[in-house]
Amino acid sequence: MPDQIKELDFEQLLQYSAASDSDEFVANVMHSVQRERRTRQLILFIFGLVGAAFGVLGAFMLSDSITRLFTSLPITGTMQAALLISAAVAFYIWFMNDDLSLTG
Questions:
Q1: What average pLDDT score do residues 93-99 get?
Q2: Does residue 45 sit within a domain?
Q3: Is 84 contained in some domain?
C-alpha cells in the first residue's frame, strides 16, 4: 500500500498542470535573461576597453623600437620581402583552395 501512495505522489508531481500565472513567469524569466545579457555586454565592453588601452600603451612603448628597425633596413629589400610573402600566401591559398571563412 505505501508503494501505491508513493507512486500517486510521484504522478501528481510529474503531472503537467497549466499554471494561470505562466505569463508572469515567462515575463520574469525574460527580464532576468535581459539583465544577464546587459551584464555580460557591460563586462565585455569594460574588458575590451582595458585590452585596447593596454594595446595602445604597448604600441606607444614599442613605436620607437619598431621605427628604428624599419628605418635601418633597406627600403627595396623590405618591399621585395613583403611582395614575396604576399605572393607566397596568395599562391598557397589558390593552390590549396582553402576556404578562409570563420564559420566552422
A1: 76
A2: yes
A3: yes
